[in-house]
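Lab manual, section 2.4: Encoding a predicted structure.

Procedure: take the sequence of the chain (334 residues), apply the prediction step described in section 2.3, and record the output as structure tokens. A sample record is shown.
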Amino acid sequence: MKCLVTGGGGFLGGRIVELLLEAGHEVHFLARNAYPDVLARGAVGHRIDLCRPEALDLALTGVEAVFHVAAKTGYWGAHEEFRSINVDGTRNLLAACRAAGVKRFVYTSTPSVIGYQHDVAGIESAPYASKFESSYAATKAEAEQLVLAANGPDLATVALRPHLVIGPGDTNLLPRVVARARSGKLLRIGNGHNKVDITFVDNAAWAHLDAAAALVDSGARCAGKAYFISNDDPRPLWPWIDAFLGQVGVAPVARGIPFGLAMVLGAVLEWVWTVSRRSGEPRMTRFVALALAREHWYSMAPARADFGYRVRVGLDEGTKRTAAWFTETHGSRS
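Recorded output:
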């Protein structure tokens, strides 16, 4: 099968490319930069901006399945930029897929679309949040709804929501956590006992391949639906973070602040950054406070039932592999 992966040079997208190649598929990927390491594996690269839809036709010629992983991530930044990439880019890609006769569309979403206003424990589904604490979550929710609404006779669609993806190649989540811990700037938010889901990158990537295989047409059990994805092994977040820090030679988090104070601090810093138009990210925002203090874990029963999702790599093994990679590439020092 000829496949196209947007964001194929990134962390999760790159792993999806690898698994597709290993399965014998012809793989193309979209990226705004050159990724010689991905090309060396046998994928065909296209340097295309999704905000320029006129360039998509050639890349989609003969493609049967699209994995739309590319997105603007982060908890701070201009709303217009998030919307341009996450919403307009997704709309452009959906239209180009229909025009090119693509049959399957797998979208990488996020659990953030249901928000963090309340603790979430073992749910199978939930409505979209009524308000969002970040432009990332708001625009991903809008884009996910576009994808699910597009499911029809000419294009079968599904959305996956992997949660806290870790693994070798992560350039964002855990490297930032470790950097803050090393500098003494990482603060435990709340009581530290909130349980969360974590997803090893191989499992998140395999979920995309499993969903694509099941998405034979718009009437498939998974078509037009969204699914949470995780290692199905929720853990108390802060003890897990401390254990990971220990594996990479960093001292555990020593300081914490109450959840309410973190929310107030986040609101104040957001106001300061907005009014003064400061560059960079505030050290705390309401979105970060909620994400680090709330309980959020999900049932994998729908994904197992509808497209055969299963955990290939357990969380302890995945954490061990991630720590070994991190130590090898970033060094181990306190």
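Check your result against the sample. The chain has a mean pLDDT of 92.
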